[in-house]
């Protein structure tokens, strides 16, 4: 039995594929084939004028409402739009290297899979795509473009990403903002840990520069419910600090603090008028693809 659309978008399935080119094509084409109606109908064009209907012309462009009012046959003429820019911004700090026992991959690998699928969809739509990835330093920059091989350049850059150090959000996002030249869709992907005060303000600046901005928070399920039992050693990947604690006595306080963090982050993005999409590493990549289509249509 061939895999279902759900299987094709399942990170456990996608993480087994050998490269981002195959992964992105498998996920995106599966996503599109599973849609009950094409979200792509009408993308890339805008209404220009009417013309008289000629026999044999495609009936889907016939204006039936105008026919009912005037009793005459007219078809709509469209013109192609200019390409859009999709800017993918990834946090590659050390905390993104976490993988719980229930997850198919690390948070960074999930973020890269998401970015690869979004890049493939953007190129498929005729859009420009670029990549900006950072941890404690700048890791990869691929300026947005639509030249032959642009998708390969983005996918190859994703394969080179390695989690390292604390995220220097202030310096790196300032650098990214300085190179924004055109109105774009900016999709920022990160676990956003300990950055609930910084990130809403940084991403707000992109929105004020007329960029439609989506924040995608990627978490491991373990980070939400702390499922471990007994004596546990908690290791901070970025600082190297360790503490040993009894998990049952830690869980309630941890979950309360995690809830406070997520609520504060959500409220900050709401005030900044930036959309927030929360995903765990066991969730379908279809959510991110659908949200990208929504933002692309809103910008169009």
Automatic annotation (TrEMBL):
<feature type="domain" description="DUF58">
    <location>
        <begin position="49"/>
        <end position="257"/>
    </location>
</feature>
<dbReference type="Pfam" id="PF01882">
    <property type="entry name" value="DUF58"/>
</dbReference>
<dbReference type="InterPro" id="IPR036465">
    <property type="entry name" value="vWFA_dom_sf"/>
</dbReference>
<dbReference type="InterPro" id="IPR002881">
    <property type="entry name" value="DUF58"/>
</dbReference>
<protein>
    <submittedName>
        <fullName>DUF58 domain-containing protein</fullName>
    </submittedName>
</protein>
């Amino acid at each position: 039995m061939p895999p279902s659309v759900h299987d094709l978008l399942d990170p456990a399935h996608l993480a087994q594929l050998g490269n981002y080119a195959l992964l992105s094509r498998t996920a995106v084409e599966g996503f599109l084939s599973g849609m009950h109606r094409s979200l792509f109908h009408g993308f890339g064009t805008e209404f220009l004028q009417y013309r008289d209907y000629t026999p044999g012309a495609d009936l889907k462009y016939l204006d039936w409402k105008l026919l009912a009012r005037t009793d005459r046959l007219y078809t709509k003429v469209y013109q192609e739009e200019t390409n859009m820019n999709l800017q993918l911004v990834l946090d590659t700090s050390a905390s993104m290297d976490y993988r719980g026992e229930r997850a198919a991959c690390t948070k960074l690998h999930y973020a890269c899979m998401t970015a690869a699928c979004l890049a493939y969809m953007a190129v498929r739509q005729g859009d420009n795509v670029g990549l900006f990835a950072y941890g404690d330093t700048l890791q990869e920059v691929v300026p947005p473009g639509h030249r032959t091989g642009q998708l390969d350049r983005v996918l190859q850059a994703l394969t080179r990403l390695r989690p390292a150090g604390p995220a220097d959000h202030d310096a790196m996002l300032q650098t990214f903002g300085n190179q924004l030249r055109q109105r774009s869709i900016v999709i920022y992907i990160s676990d956003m840990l300990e950055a609930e005060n910084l990130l809403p303000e940084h991403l707000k600046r992109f929105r004020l520069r007329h960029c439609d901005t989506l924040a995608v928070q990627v978490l491991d399920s373990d980070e939400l419910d702390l499922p471990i039992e007994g004596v546990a050693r908690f290791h901070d990947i970025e600082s190297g600090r360790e503490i040993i604690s009894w998990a049952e006595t830690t869980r309630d306080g941890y979950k309360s603090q995690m809830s406070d963090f997520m609520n504060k982050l959500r409220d900050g993005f709401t005030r900044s008028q930036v959309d927030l999409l929360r995903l765990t590493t066991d969730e379908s990549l279809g959510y991110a693809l659908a949200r990208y289509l929504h933002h692309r249509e809103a910008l169009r």
